[in-house]
Amino acid sequence: MEIERKFLINIDAFDLSKHDYVEIQQAYISTSPVIRVRKKASFFAKGNENTVQEYILTVKSKGMLSRQEFELELTSNDYNNLLAKAEGNVITKRRYIIPLENGLILELDFFKDLFQGLVMGEIEFPDEDTAKKYNLPDFIIREVTFDKRYHNSNMSTMPQEEISDLIVLSH
After folding, report:
1. Which of 2, 3, 6, 11 is nearest to 146 (CA)?
2. Which of 6, 49, 56, 159 has the smallest set of CB atoms within 10 Å of its CB?
3. pLDDT at 51
4. Torsion sign over Cα 151, 32, 163, 70
5. Catalytic residue from among 21, 28, 55, 79
6. Which pLDDT score is estimated for 44?
7. Residue 111 CA to chain centroid, in angstroms?
8. Alpha carbon 77 to chain centroid, angstroms
9. What is the pLDDT of residue 65?
10. Closest CA to 20 of 60, 61, 51, 58
11. Other C-beta atoms within 10 Å of 138: how many?
12. Could you tell me the pTM of the whole model?
């Protein structure tokens, strides 16, 4: 079960050089149901030169705050074959991993290419009750959990004009 809230973030609140990050490329084979392929390359703030590369197929159920999520590891060859079958926009982003209080983690995404200029954060929670009671820190500009436009699966089908509007709205 994935339980997460999405936010637009004030990035001035963080020194990003202190945090690990992941370079992500993802595309959608289907948006209903959500079937995503993702390539992740992890980089570590402490200068560890051994990056970790992963290829993942994800299937998600419907839902905004909570939904079922199933993941399957892929080979790079499988990933590339599925990527060629994906439709719509390929989404690329750099995701910083930022520890918060109470064991929570902010995944802070800086989108690239088509979505350059969009910055969004996600916080995953252990249960819905914790998610609903979470007090928003000062670095959060606005919550977008229930705004479908900010879900990556919907972003993958957006035409350029809507993408430009989304980026402007996020500031």
Report:
1. 6
2. 49
3. 73
4. positive
5. 28
6. 76
7. 9
8. 23
9. 87
10. 51
11. 7
12. 0.92
For residue 43, count other CB atoms closer than 10 A to its CB.
16
Nearest in space to 4 (alpha carbons), one of 154, 133, 122 = 122
Task: Please give the pLDDT value at position 49.
Answer: 61
The long-range contacts involving 50-54, CB below 8 angstroms and separated by at least 24 positions, are none
As a whole number of angstroms, the distance between CA 123 and CA 107 comes to: 6
For 68, the 3-state DSSP assignment is coil
For 36, counting Cβ atoms within 10 Å of its Cβ (0-12 exposed, 13-18 middle, 19+ buried), the class is buried
The pair of three-digit structure tokens given for residue 62, joined into one six-digit string:
């419907």
Cβ atoms of residues 2 and 60 within 8 Å:
yes
- Chunked into runs of 10 residues, the chain (171 residues) has average pLDDT values of 95 92 96 95 72 91 90 96 95 96 96 96 96 95 96 95 92 82
Question: 3-class SS at 113?
Answer: helix
Catalytic (active site) residue 28: yes
Cα-atom radius of gyration of the chain, to the nearest Å? 16
Query: What is the spatial distance between Cα 119 and Cα 130, in angstroms, rounded to a whole number?
Result: 24
Amino acid at 130: T
pLDDT attached to residue 169: 86
Please provide the size of the chain in residues.
171
Give me the pLDDT at residue 50, please.
63
The structure tokens listed for 168 are 């402007």
